[in-house]
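Per-record layout

source: candidate division WWE3 bacterium
name: Glycosyltransferase
length: 362
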Amino acid sequence: MNILFAHDYPPIEGGGLEVNTFAVASELTARGNAVTIITSRRSSETFMGGVPAEQNGVQIRIVKDLQEVAGYVQAADVICPQMTFSLRDCGIEAIRQALAMGKVVIVSQHTATNHIPYSNLQRLSLSQRNVRLEEYRDLLNNEGVAVVAPSIMLADDLTSFGVVKDITIIPIGIEQPNTEKSDKKYDLVTVGEVSYLKGLNYLCDSIRLLKNEGMVVTAAVAGGGSEFELVKALASSLEIADQIDFLGYIPHKRVNNVLAQSRVMVHPSLSEVMPLVIIEAMLMNVPVVASNVGFCGSLLKQSGGGVVFERGDVAGLAASIKIFLSNERLCTAMGQSGKVYCKERYTIDVQVDRLVKMIESR
């Protein structure tokens, strides 16, 4: 089977969508399928590495002109656009072309509508944005399109957006870690885009608040982003720069190493659906403190792998951090609980099995 993945982000890593798509594509290739990923972007604020033409047997192509999309769609049996509510061009064009050619189309949605105020759509005028959203709603409702969401919460959000069909829930999968235990170098770690959208300002404020209370914590910030220098400057102005190790972009294969060196993973984002890094942290026995957005609250409650605070609540974040760092037994218990829960549910094999079953049913 010839399968085409299409999106508008770096093809191998950079964020959760990129990492998961490539992992799924690699597993599908290992099972004997011919898989290609096309994308309009070679790099982003969170990924600056090189892009090979092939990796793990997956063919990788950077689309420079939207007219190229039709050729890739024509050559494929199944088209799997990976979409966010930025609604960038390559993914949208892949859906258009696939429908025009009568191909099997399975759209995986990775963000909710609350992402729109922070998305690429904000560059458009209000009327242009509404036209784009209306077109996407119509595409998803086309009888030739099947829609996938990673959680019931996102499926409900798509229904509220106007998708009037059954949405298939396929949880994202994670490659199981093999990193050995490591000495704890950091009290806290956060992984991902370094920006105010991801709540790094709240993390800095909470570290300052804890310092005022007599608790000096160390933190690692792994990732790049358009506001990297701005967040560093904030840390300096708060006089906590010596407590934070700004690692910059690190390859995804090193993420587990940084997690293993940390006592608690903090994810203070303002907008999320189901962050890959939270599951990665729990699989590494690391408890999580996350803002109560998207599926974060439900995931941490069901797994017992961490706690949530209301987004933007610096005092609440600081209090949650303090609870963990003052109770090693709690850290260990929640870390173990999260690992058991995620190891049973979030694997690439399970995700690919469900996707293949869905393809075969079409």
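summary: The chain has two domains: 2-173+347-361, 186-345. The CA atoms of residues 66 and 230 lie 34 Å apart.
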